[in-house]
Each structure stands twice: as C-alpha cells, then as structure tokens.
Fold this protein.
Amino acid sequence: MNEKLEQIRKEAIKQIENSDALEKLNEIRVNFLGKKGELTAVLKSMKDVAPEDRPKVGQLVNETRAEIEKVLEEAIKKMENLKREAQMKAEVIDVTLPAKKNAVGHSHPNVIAMEEVQRIFIGMGYEVVEGPEIETDYYNFEALNIPADHPAKDEQDTFYINGDFLLRTQTSGTQVHVMEKGKLPIRMIAPGRVFRSDEVDATHSPSFHQIEGLVIDKHITFADLKGTLAEFSKELFGEDTKVRFRPHHFNFTEPSAEMDISCFKCGGDGCRFCKGTGWIEILGCGMVHPNVLKMSKIDPEEYTGFAFGIGLERIALLKYEIDDMRLLYENDARFLKQF
C-alpha cells in the first residue's frame, strides 16, 4: 500500500510539473483527488487492509493528498501569475501617445434656428407652448375660421387619419387650445412639426416645422404687430433689416398681410439671393379674426389680437444660405458638421 501511495504521489507531481495550462491542472486535480480519483480508490480499498493497519494507511493517504494539493496550488498560482504578466505586457498603454479625439455631436441647423427664434420671443415676454401633432378637424380648421368647403381641407393637401382626426397642417391649433382656457392676456409662440401632402423638392417637404405666434389683449392694434415683427427681424437678421407688409388673405386673420424683409446680403440693392428685388418673403400675419375669438369664448368687443406664422426651415435656409431644403433631412455628416 505504501508503494502504491508513493507511486501515486510521484505520478501526480510529475504531471503537475509538466503541465502548461490551467485546464490541465484542473484535470490532474480531478484524476487524483476527485470522487473517482486514485486516492479515493485507495480509501475504498481500505476494507482489504488489516484492521490494525488501517489508521496508518489512512494517515499516509491524507499526507499524500496534502502534498499533492500543496504542489497543485503552487503550480496554479505560478501559472496565474505568468498569465497575468503576459496579459499586462499585451495590454500595455503608451501614455505618451496622443489621445483619440471623441466625436462630439452638435445641434442641427433647424434646432439652432428654433432656439434663436425662441430666445428672441422669450425676451419679449412670450411663452413657448407645444401642442399635439394629431389634431381634430375642429382645431385644425373649423376653430380657425376655415369652412368645410375650403380648398385647404382637400385630401390632396391634408393627411387624414379618419373623418375626425388628421396630421396637423399648422400649429395654429395649439393657439386655439390656449385661447379656450380663457386665461388672458396671451403672448405665446407654438413651434412644432406639421404635415402636408407636398412633393419633395428643394423648397417643399411633406413634413416640416412652423412657429405660430399669438398675442391677445385689450387695445392690440396692427401697429403692435408691425413693431413686434420689425424688432424680431432686426434681432434675427441684423439691426439694418427693414420690413414691409403686403395685403394678403388668411382665414384666421383680418386684415392679413405677408411680410418681407430687406435682403441682408445686398442691403436691398438686389442680388441673386433676393432674385434682384431687394426683398425676401419671410412670414404671414394679421389681426385675429373676430370669428376665431368668438369660437374660443373671447369677446371681440373687449379683446383684440394678432397672429403670425413662420416656416422654421425657411429661416434656416435664409440664415445659413442653404439653397436646398432636402439637405436638412439627408443626415449627411459632411453637411451638418458645418453648423
């Protein structure tokens, strides 16, 4: 029995010393010390040993086990240290190398233009209000004095979900929601995405952004509208910017007008940017129609107001001299990183 235990000890130590991987060491542990290992087999054969010799044989088995375990643990520890050293050498970092520059995103041209417009109107005391992109026919048309037979309600221009709901064609519906609350006076702008059934080209898209503005208070006149928009234009395009108003028609307002600004490229002399006219059309506006006030339970005899609508993409195209609206939505990083 002593010879067999010595043979097992020598064989186990030999295999441990010749091992070159942690997986092999684990196999040796199982083969010699496991439940079906060679030392366990010796213990199971103790029934064949004389009773008086069993304590001595058991002690020899335990000593052999302890020695194998000691050599095994030392080998595992040594191999783990070697593995860690190799890993550290392979993963060494040269701290003298220049750091990699992280690619940091930035605001989209639309967002930059939106924030600038909002900054100007917030500075004038306006509140920024958001509304739903899915509207009812009432808020998108009827409450804005647009009758059922108006061309703007034709399905060629509007994306209808069903007979009652549609994708809003303007953010003016948000103004109606605010007016219905009855909290006066009102000074607000309503920026947001709108949808119209337009073909995609350099100046049109089925999805774009508008900023609608609304002021309602006592004694509001067209002069207030002109002064507000003139100041807005100077803040956005420069102190020398001039404005002019041309009569127009909008169902939501009466009287109505379209506003032009003097070309900020040529100062009004005429150039390619303003098509030689010296003026650039920028927005539509007017005094809120009495019918609109009445439908929102506001007395037109006591309160008056003005409204205006600005195309956000038009602001971005003009301000950053972009000649194709599609560039704003093609996600070309070479284009967007310029702003």
Summary: Residues 214 and 294 are 16 Å apart (CA to CA). The chain has eleven helices and nine strands. The chain has two domains: 2-90, 109-336.
